[in-house]
Amino acid sequence: MLKPAISGLSRVANSFAIAANVAGTLAVLMLVVILNVDVIARGVFNAPLKGTYEIVQLAVVFIVFLQLPDVVRVDRLTRSDGFLNLLHATRPGLTANLRRIINAMSAIFMGLIAYIMFPEFLKMWSTQDFFGIPGVFTVPWWPIKLVIAVGSALASLIFLLKVITAQDRPRLVRVPEHDDDAPGGSNS
Amino acid sequence: MTPIEIGLISVIAIVILIYAGVYIPVALGMVSLVSIWLMRDNFTLSLNLLKIAVGDSAMVYSFATIPLFTFMGLIVSKAGLGRDIYEVMTMRFRKVKGGIGMATVGANAVFAAVTGSSIASASVFTKVSVPQMIAQDYNPRFAVGVVAGSSVLGMIIPPSAMLIIYSFVAEQSVGDMFLAGVIPGIMLAIAYVAAIWVMGRYTPGFVGGRIVEDTEWMSRREIASKTLPTLGLITIVLGGIYTGWMTAVEAGATGSLVALIIALTRRSMSPKAFWEALLETGHITAAILFLITAASIYSRMLGLAGLPNQLQDMLAGSSASFWTIMLLYVLLMIFLGTILDTASIILIVVPLFLPLVEALDMSLIWFGIITVVGAEIGLLTPPLGISCFVIKSTLNDDRISLKDVFMGALPFAFVMLLVLFILIEFPILSLALL
C-alpha cells in the first residue's frame, strides 16, 4: 500500500519539478531579451529601459530556485562521486546506504532553507515591501521569498523521495547533457 | 573548543564530506551551519545567517553573467563554430610535425574565447580532433593528451565560469577578471604549441603521425565564412567590455543574441535544440549559483571563526618569503585539484587567503588568475581529472583507457605549472590590459 503512494508522490513531485524548470527556462529567455532591448534602446535611441537592473536581479533568483528541484531530480547538483563509484564496485550495499545518508542530509538542508524562508514570505506579503527606486521602478519582495521557499521545499521533497526509493543510480561520469553532435558547420 | 579550532575542523570536514560524495553545496552549507551553532551556542543565529546568505547572495546583478555566457557557449557549440575554427587551423599547420596537435590548441584557444567551460571544449574537440589524429597515425596518448591539455584554455581565456566565480568570492569586477585572463590564456596556448614542437622534435615516438600530402587549400571565401562569425563574436564581447561600453552582463546578453543569429543564419539550430540549450543553461546556472550561495555562508562562518586572519598572522608574521607562501599555495591547489573540482577549490580556498593577499599588498585580480590556473592543473591529474573523464566518455573507444588520457595529459599539466610560475613572478602579465 505504501509503494503506490510513494511512486504516486514521486510522479507528482517530478512533474512539479519539470513545470518549475520550464518556468525557470523562460526566465533565462527573458533575461536575454530584456538586456538586449536595454542595450539597443540605450545605444541606438539613447533611452535605457527602466528597471533593467531590478528585473535582472529578479530573473537570477527565479532561474536558480525554479531550476533547483529539477537539477536535484536529474542528479546534476555539483558533487564529486569518484569515491562512491569506486566503492560501488566492491560494496554495492554500503554504497547504496551511503547515498541514502547523503540524500537525507541534503533533504534536511533544503528543508531548513524552506523553513526559514516561508515566514519571510508571509512577512513580505503582509507588509508589501519592495526594492528598487520608488517612482522609477519597484519590485515587491514577496515573489522572491516565495520562489526561494517553494523551490527549496520541492527540492527537499525530491531528496526525501530519493532516500525512500534509493533511486540514485551510480554512473561513472557525469557526461554533459549537451552531448551535442556538433553539426558540420554551415554546409551540413 | 576555540572558534579557530572549530573553524579548522569544519574546513577539514568539508573536504572529507565532498570526497565522500556529499553534494558540494550541501557539505558547505551544513558544516557551516553546525559550526556556527557550536561556536556561538545559538542555533537561531546560524539559521539567521543561512537566511541572509540565501536571500542576499542570490540577488547579485552580476550573477546574470553565468546564465548568459553559458547560453552563448552552448549555442556556439551547437552552431559548429568549434569545428570550423579547427578546420581552418589544421590547414595552416598541416605541414608541421605534430601539426594537428598545434591546430587543436589554436582552435581551442579561439573557441575558448566564445565559451566559458572546459567541459564543452573537451567534448567538442574529442569528437573532431582525436579521430583525425588517430587516422593520421598519431600516438593515441598524444592525441587525447592534446585535447585534455588544451581544453583547460576554456576556463582561463574569457568568458570563463571560473573567473566569474572568483570575482564573486573576491568581490572584484567580472569585466576586470575577464580582461586579466586574456594574456595568460594566450601565453598558455603559445606554451602548449611550443611544447608540441619540442615533443615532435625530441620525442617523435610520443607524438607519432605522418605528414599528409593531400593539400586541398580552402578558398579565401571559405576561410572567411568559417572564421569571421567567431572573430566577430569575440570582438563584440571582449571589445564591449574593454571599451567600457557594456557591462559584463550586457556583453553576455549581446553575445547570446549574436550567437543565436549566427546559428539561425547557418540553419544549424532547430527549435528543439534551442529549447534544450535553454534548459541546459538553467541547470548549469542553478547548480553553480546554488554552490556560490552555499559558499557564502561558509565564508561567513570562516569570518566568525577568525580563521583567515589567523592564517594571515601566521604566514605574514613569520619570516616566510613571498615565494615560500606562493609555493605552499600552489601545492595546496594541486593537492586539492586531485580530489575536488575547480569551482569548489576556488570557493573553499580563496576566502581563507583573501586577508593574507590584501595584507601582503598583492593584487586580488592577479591572485585570481593564479588561483584559476593552479586549480585547473587538477583537471588534468588523476584521480579526479574531470576533463580527462569527459574525454574518455565522449571518445567511447575501448582501445584508449583512462590511464592513457591521464598519461597523455601529463606533459601539458607540466607546461601549465611552468606558465603558472611565470605568471606568479610577473604579475604585469595579468594586469597589463586593465
Protein described:
The complex is a heterodimer of chains A (188) and B (434). With 188 residues, chain A is mostly helical. Chain A contains five helices and two strands; from the N terminus they run ααααββα. In chain A, a hairpin with a 3-residue loop joins strand 1 and strand 2 (137-140). Chain B contains 23 helices and no strands. In chain B, 78% of the residues lie in helices and 0% in strands. Chains A and B meet through helix 1, helix 2, helix 3, helix 4 and helix 5 of A and helix 2, helix 3, helix 4, helix 5 and helix 7 of B.
Uncertain regions of chain A: pLDDT < 50 for 5+ in a row? 170-188
| Gyration radius of chain B, in Å | 22 Å
Overall morphology of chain B: globular
Strand arrangement across the biggest beta sheet of chain A:
1-2
Low-confidence stretches of chain B: none
For the structure shown, list the relevant keywords.
heterodimer, A: 188 residues, mainly alpha, two-stranded antiparallel ribbon, B: 434 residues, 23 helices, globular
A few lines on this structure:
The complex is a heterodimer of chains A (188) and B (434). By secondary structure, chain A is mainly alpha-helical.
What's the structural blueprint in terms of helices and strands?
The complex is a heterodimer of chains A (188) and B (434).
Chain A: H1 2-43, H2 52-73, H3 82-90, H4 92-127, E1 130-133, E2 137-140, H5 142-165
Antiparallel strand pairs in A: 1-2
Chain B: H1 3-19, H2 24-40, H3 43-57, H4 65-78, H5 81-93, H6 99-112, H7 118-128, H8 130-135, H9 140-151, H10 153-156, H11 161-169, H12 174-202, H13 204-207, H14 220-242, H15 248-265, H16 271-305, H17 307-317, H18 322-337, H19 342-359, H20 364-377, H21 386-395, H22 402-425, H23 428-431
Helix pairs in contact in B: 1-2, 1-16, 2-3, 2-16, 3-16, 4-15, 4-16, 5-6, 5-14, 6-9, 6-12, 7-9, 7-21, 9-22, 11-12, 11-19, 11-20, 12-20, 12-22, 14-15, 16-19, 17-19, 18-20, 19-20, 20-22, 21-22
